[in-house]
């Protein structure tokens, strides 16, 4: 049973009682009133038929929570995933056409399969490929593009956004609906946050649109199908088209996984439990596969809706089950009520939801932490905006830049000459303006692994110093920071020892960790000799240097 619950986490849910179910149902209603209008709006952002937003909320949320370790994640359409779908398919088909839907389903199948595979293989470390600055830069760029894409509908602009500068024509009724909705959403969030403002505004706008006759002549959602989604399997596209979907599917996988991680970590910290990233990846992948089989697009975890679920008092996955039940009721009975909602109101839903992603101060904060991190965020942002609609290149550019910087740091490890600080610690001699440990002593510390990436830098530092200081008689290696050594490191260490022995220089090594020491011993480069001294601690090495003072003149 225990092994079965490992793959089916819902078997570990607590047995429900009346009090638990009441609390879970209340939390479900709280998140559902936000989830339903957002799902419909994000479907339009993805270029999909609007009803597929509800399809992507019903079964995917239920499937994901059954297979996830984190039970209070709100799975469904999200702004970033939706805009990635729309951007990835631009030029491959007409939005909302059967071909577009089929390609969106393939994106869901591909990204879902990748997530399930990563989770089942225990490869959650792949998430580390996308750093926080990369995601921040992409989110800023994507948010601005999303807002720009919604401005025509929000303002009732007749034509594309560029027509604002070329004798624009407005539908002033749509403009009133859009701007009025934004003002009401902002006021509701600020003054009455517990009120379901989004749902109330949509209901009021639909009623006003119907009563005034605007729904008969203006831009509204229109009729939506009633009922459950039929099982769907997309036709196989041409090989070239399928290949063009691979990179976007990978980017959707990474971005949605990071959206999931942001919410899941908060949940695990609040519960005081270890986050099971692998199982949550499986759950997210299963959710995407369920969305594909419903004829919808890739889902993700909404950070804002997950926060609502958590802070509304949800304790288990039963809240998501009840929320799916609410969506079921909407699909079966309430979709006709949405047909009168003006599209300007739907644009307002997207704009107000995405506005939270725009954080202008994030680059300044990153600059204070690390300038290269800030540059990474800026480059990701710039490539995201410049490559629109192929905005997935923004994420890839950021990932490559971050990996390149990581590789540079590995190839250029921090190797310092140490001196004795007045507080008794060993610190960077140049940085703290400290004296040498001895007149003929070169004391160094490498804050890195001794492997193929850093070994040559270690050897070069030593050779350069000895060339500039020929009187050196003792080389002290404070090796405590070295956690690992590979074949290249062993070879270089052996070469260094032979070079020092040939010059009559005594090598002192302190703090060598047991795993590293064993590798060096097996390779035969730690064989005892008159010019090699090993010390368990740095203090032992310093005491030995004191006994050597004043250092004897170097032979020859």
UniProtKB/TrEMBL annotation:
Compartments, record wording: Membrane
A Pfam family reported for this protein in Swiss-Prot or TrEMBL: STAS
Gene3D superfamilies referenced in this protein's UniProt entry, alphabetically: STAS domain
CDD domains listed in its UniProt record: STAS_SulP_like_sulfate_transporter
Single GO cellular component term: membrane
Domain STAS intervals: 439-548
TM stretches of this protein: 20-40, 46-67, 79-97, 103-127, 134-157, 169-186, 198-216, 236-255, 318-338, 344-362, 369-387
Biological process terms in GO annotation: transmembrane transport
Topology class, membrane: Multi-pass membrane protein
Keywords linked to the UniProt accession: Membrane, Transmembrane, Transmembrane helix
PANTHER family reported in the protein's UniProt record: SULFATE TRANSPORTER
Protein name, as recorded: SulP family inorganic anion transporter
UniProt lineage: Bacteria, Pseudomonadati, Pseudomonadota, Betaproteobacteria, Burkholderiales
């Amino acid at each position: 049973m225990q092994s079965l619950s490992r793959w089916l986490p819902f078997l570990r849910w607590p047995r429900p009682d009346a009090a638990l179910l009441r609390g879970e149902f209340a939390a479900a209603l709280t998140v559902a009133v936000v989830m339903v209008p957002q799902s419909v709006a994000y479907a339009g952002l993805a270029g999909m038929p609007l009803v597929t937003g509800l399809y992507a909320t019903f079964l995917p949320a239920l499937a994901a929570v059954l297979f996830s370790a984190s039970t209070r994640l709100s799975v469904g359409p999200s702004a970033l995933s939706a805009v990635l779908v729309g951007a990835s398919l631009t030029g491959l088909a007409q939005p909302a056409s059967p071909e577009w839907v089929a390609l969106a389903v393939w994106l869901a199948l591909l990204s879902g399969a990748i997530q399930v595979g990563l989770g089942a293989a225990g490869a959650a470390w792949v998430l580390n490929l996308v750093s926080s600055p990369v995601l921040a830069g992409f989110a800023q760029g994507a948010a601005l593009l999303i807002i720009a894409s919604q401005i025509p509908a929000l303002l009732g602009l007749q034509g594309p956004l560029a027509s604002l500068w070329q004798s624009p024509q407005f539908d002033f009724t749509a403009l009133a609906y859009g701007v009025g909705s934004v003002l009401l959403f902002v006021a509701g969030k600020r003054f009455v946050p517990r009120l379901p403002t989004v749902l109330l505004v949509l209901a009021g706008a639909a009623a006003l649109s119907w009563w005034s006759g605007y729904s008969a002549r203006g831009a509204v959602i229109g009729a939506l199908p009633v009922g459950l989604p039929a099982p769907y399997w997309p036709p196989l596209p041409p090989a070239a088209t399928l290949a063009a979907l691979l990179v976007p599917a990978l980017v959707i996988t990474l971005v949605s996984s990071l959206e999931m991680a942001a919410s899941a970590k908060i949940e695990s910290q609040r519960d005081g439990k270890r986050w099971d990233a692998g199982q949550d990846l499986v759950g997210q992948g299963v959710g995407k596969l369920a969305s594909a089989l419903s004829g919808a697009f890739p889902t993700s975890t909404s950070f804002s809706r997950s926060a609502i679920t958590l802070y509304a008092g949800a304790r288990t996955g039963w809240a998501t089950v009840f929320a799916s039940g609410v969506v079921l009721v909407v699909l079966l009975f309430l979709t006709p009520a949405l047909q009168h909602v003006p599209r300007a109101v739907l644009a307002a839903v997207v704009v107000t939801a995405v506005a939270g992603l725009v954080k202008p101060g994030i680059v300044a904060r990153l600059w204070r932490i690390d300038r290269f991190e800030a540059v990474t965020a800026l480059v990701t942002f710039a490539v995201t905006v410049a490559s629109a609609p192929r905005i997935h290149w923004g994420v890839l550019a950021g990932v490559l830049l971050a990996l390149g910087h990581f590789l540079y740091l590995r190839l250029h490890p921090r190797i310092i000459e140490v001196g004795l600080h007045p507080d008794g610690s060993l610190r960077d001699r140049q940085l703290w303006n400290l004296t040498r440990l001895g007149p003929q002593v070169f004391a160094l510390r490498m804050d890195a692994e001794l492997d193929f990436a850093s070994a040559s830098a270690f050897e070069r530092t030593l050779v350069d110093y000895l060339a500039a200081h020929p009187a050196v008689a003792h080389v002290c290696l404070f090796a405590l920071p070295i956690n690992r050594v590979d074949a290249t490191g062993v070879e270089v260490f052996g070469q260094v020892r032979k070079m020092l022995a040939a010059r009559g220089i005594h090598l002192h090594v302190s703090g060598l960790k047991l795993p590293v020491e064993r590798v060096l011993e097996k390779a035969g480069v730690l064989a005892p000799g008159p010019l090699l001294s090993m010390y368990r601690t740095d203090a032992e090495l310093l005491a030995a240097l004191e006994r050597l003072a004043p250092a004897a003149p170097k032979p020859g």
